[in-house]
Amino acid sequence: MDTSRWEAVIGLELHAQLATRSKIFSGAPTGYGAPPNRQACAVDLGLPGVLPVLNGTALSMAVKFGLAVGATVARHSVFARKNYFYPDLPKGYQISQYELPIVEGGAVHISTEGASRRVGITRAHLEEDAGKSVHDVVSGRSAIDLNRAGIPLLEIVSEPDMRSAAEAVAYMQEVHAIVRYLEICDGNMQEGSFRCDANVSVRRRGEHALGTRTELKNLNSFRFVERAIRHEIDRQIAVLESGGTVVQQTRHYDAERNDTRPLRDKEEANDYRYFPDPDLLPVEIDDAFVESIRSALPELPGDRRRRFVADYGLGLDEARLLTSDRHLANYFEATLGDEGADPRLAAHWVTGELGAHLNREGRDISASPVSPEMMQGLLRRLRDGTVSGPVAKEVLKAMWDGEGDADHVIEGRGLRQVNDDDALSRLVDDVLDAHPDQVSQFRSGRQKVLGYLVGQAMKASRGKANPQRVNALMRARLTE
Amino acid sequence: MHHLSIRQLKEALLARDFSCEELARSHLERLVRIGAELNCLVSLTEEQALAEAREADRRLIRGDCPALNGIPVVHKDVFCTRGVRTSCGSRMLDNFVAPYDATVVERARRQGMVMLGKANMDEFAMGSSNENSFYGPVRNPWDRERVPGGSSGGSAAAVAARLVPAATGTDTGGSVRQPAALCGVTGIKPTYGRVSRYGLVAYASSLDQAGVFARSVEDAAFVLEAIAGYDERDSTSVDRPVENYVSALEEDAGPLRIGVAREFFGSGLDPAVGDAIEEALSHFERHGAGRRDISIPSLELAIPAYYVVAPAECSSNLSRYDGVRYGYRSAGARDIETLYKKSRSEGFGAEVKRRILVGTYALSSGYYDAYYLKAQKIRRLISAELREALREVDVIVGPTSPFTAFRLGERAGDPVTMYRCDVYTTAVNLAGLPAISLPAGFVHGLPVGLQIIGDHFSEARLLQIAHRFQSTSDWHQRVPAGCE
């Protein structure tokens, strides 16, 4: 299979669950994990006679997103009914937006392996989520949980601008970062707050016409998106190379088998009979409303990333990691208040050692027991030589475990770095005396053994010795 | 006491001529006796009514009476009532008990009204004769072999037979005005958005509007004032103060210019009905009104436009009746597809199914532009022409129905013949205008209805004009034989 003759064309439909307290058309709460049907009111159940009322916060959030991606925010948008029968769709239609969505146009910029690309956003529209059919609770029967029915969603539809699985993931991560920066979506993919469907086709390189596409569903992590798209591209190329044709269909990704399979019963062409929902008036918004939202927009991840590279001298990957989460970026910047602060050192410790602690306990940066001020104190002691790197790790661990700030831990545990040359000379002499073989090896030309000897000295000092000084003193003694 | 007006009832109750409970009992007794013959109720809520009446009596003693304290009312069975079945005249909802009250029901109760029962109706408010009810047809009190009109036939018949002073209804294409005309009572359909639709089981959402049946304009004004007003639960209700309709009746209406549209007097109009309407128009002129003959050409398109828009919305609105969560569920379905098909086939009547099919077709891809979109364009045209005409005249006056009450079964075989009933009423819904139907004569012992159409939110003025007519005529005071 010669993949170089083929080009993939990918577009994504992302569903961001908007972080409103109540549902998009009812007053029922939106919390995750409640017992079945406890968060569904008469409106969500589609009882006779009930009517939808638009949640103003959901509207503001959609406008926020539109402004953040440079899109046109429609001053006049319309809710439409998408009609189809499904047991977990209580009204027999989903309220969505069709011809006149709230957001049109716009773009985000991504970069992968040094190359950057603009990915166009066709539209973003508001809609309500459906409920959930559950097949394993009541034996032999299907049950329906309508807690999710009426949860506000922003469906973000991209142009087919991506050319690889890696680009698709980069785009998805960028949008993920944006919605979290805007605090309009918690981005939790396990709980389904941020979902992705991918439209994938391939064509011969140089061709302009699009190939037949398939739609991939059930992509609930960045990793699955990448693997599923890569797999689907290969599958389509194989089909075409063997003289076959790609069938337009919806395919379900099976993460365990890393395989996609056509979904049953989805191939019949559904006629959704969209028409404007007569229960909801067209949404009319004015410039003042849009401007009030624009003026309150935070710095967005792309801008912040560029600033971190330019102002702090961070590498692109490090900057991307730090800016992927607004709270993480805020944390990082909060550690830089000191005179003589070293952003690269700070970035290294925040993403590295602190990140490892957070990952291990599955905590978000905002739940870190080590505050930015505490981290700043530790960085200060690293820079002024009070502690070495290895000792700093111990200090951080102690701070994480609640032993107080860096200075407190350093004093309490006696971890202050030894910089006194007399004391260090004694340490060096002791080590050299204890290792006569290595000393003679060094003197006969095996210079590499110096590292071992320095290590022994550091070990003997329980990491407190200043490693640069030990190194210098030891070299001086050995070459006397 | 069943002949007293609401104003007289209020005075009598205040004077303790009788109690609210006695008033309720007397009406319940007639509802059981005469109401059963007419089949005008699908539920009689006797116990609840007596409890509410006793509560009204206690309020009377405490001296904190709302405007309609103790006044009996019947609600069309399209309004949800907490704890009392809301069937919509359908097998589909024969077992449905709503967990909440419609805003109309809630407001009527807050004003002290005592609900005696739920009125029979065409299934899901689709029909012009009340023959489409799962609970059987309602009979016209003026001639029990004839229809009361529809879809709010039970409400109209109950008021006409003096079984209740007032009843609520809904009007999507004429469902308050046409039965009011055929039963010889006063019926008002307010401006779209004037009365909340919350809890009103939807037929065609952009056209549905709650209305009132009463024996006089004044009684209708009392009840409309109680139920009208903005409701944050209905996005299409309009946030605009409700006028004091009752006190407005006594204000000087000033010079009146009535418009007479030639399209309301076309070939479909029964000449005898036409004569009665002409006489009513002369009556207005004799009492100082100026008459202007006008033309509103697009009125000819109202029926086709209505019978696309209404079914289209209905096809979507009625999708929720799938047998899954509530309502009728066919027994023995083994899979979800069959459950849908059987439940809906068995739960809905023929006319409802017809409109769902028509509406589904009109919204289908490939037909949407030709039907739904075209109908919406006609709708805008009708609305523009009517409003243009209403700049020249205060109101447009004509017949409510082209004919008087017809025999049971007479039009049931052919839907298009049935749809002609609505020829003078649907344009008003398409334009969202308020209109009122008044008794204005009799032909062979059957009432004739006069329709008065006003501009948006001109309910006070409409009621004033209608009240002036009733102050100088007595058609509305005639009582059907056997209902004295």
Task: Please write out the topology.
The complex is a heterodimer of chains A (480) and B (484).
Chain A: E1 6-17, H1 42-45, H2 56-68, E2 72-73, E3 76-77, E4 79-83, E5 93-97, E6 103-104, E7 107-112, E8 115-128, E9 132-134, E10 143-145, E11 152-158, H3 165-181, E12 194-204, E13 214-217, H4 222-241, E14 249-254, E15 259-262, E16 275-276, E17 283-284, H5 287-294, H6 301-312, H7 316-323, H8 326-334, H9 343-361, H10 372-383, H11 389-400, H12 406-413, H13 421-434, H14 436-443, H15 449-460, H16 467-478
Parallel strand pairs in A: 13-14
Antiparallel strand pairs in A: 1-11, 1-12, 2-6, 3-17, 4-5, 4-16, 6-8, 7-8, 8-11, 9-10, 12-13, 14-15
Helix pairs in contact in A: 3-4, 6-7, 7-9, 10-11, 13-15, 13-16, 15-16
Chain B: H1 6-14, H2 20-38, E1 41-44, H3 46-62, E2 72-76, H4 103-110, E3 114-119, H5 153-160, E4 166-170, H6 177-183, E5 186-189, E6 210-214, H7 217-227, H8 245-248, E7 257-261, H9 271-286, E8 290-294, H10 302-317, H11 336-347, H12 350-363, H13 369-392, E9 395-399, H14 415-419, H15 426-431, E10 435-443, E11 446-453, H16 459-471
Parallel strand pairs in B: 2-3, 2-4, 7-8, 7-9
Antiparallel strand pairs in B: 1-3, 4-6, 5-6, 5-10, 9-11, 10-11
Helix pairs in contact in B: 2-3, 5-6, 10-12, 10-13
